[in-house]
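Priority: medium. Attachment 1 of 2:
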């Protein structure tokens, strides 16, 4: 979450599911670099990937994101 590229990817995926190519079109970096960021987000279970035909669509894993937001709110005292 500390990386601005990964935060922007999550913001894009909040609006709709996207392919890696669609995500990459929003950045000035190589597709392998975007794939690297997507893999980190998948390992953190913040993003899910689903193959549809020849494309892989990425989406936010809302369950994990909600758990994370609840945890962070608890740390700040706002969740009490």
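Attachment 2 of 2:
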């Amino acid at each position: 979450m500390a990386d601005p590229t990964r935060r922007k990817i999550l913001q894009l995926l909040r609006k709709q599911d996207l392919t890696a190519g669609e995500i990459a079109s929003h950045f000035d970096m190589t597709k392998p670099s975007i794939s690297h960021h997507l893999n980190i987000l998948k390992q953190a279970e913040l993003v899910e990937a689903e193959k549809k035909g020849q494309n892989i669509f990425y989406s936010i894993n809302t369950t994990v994101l909600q758990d994370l937001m609840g945890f962070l709110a608890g740390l700040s005292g706002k969740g009490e």
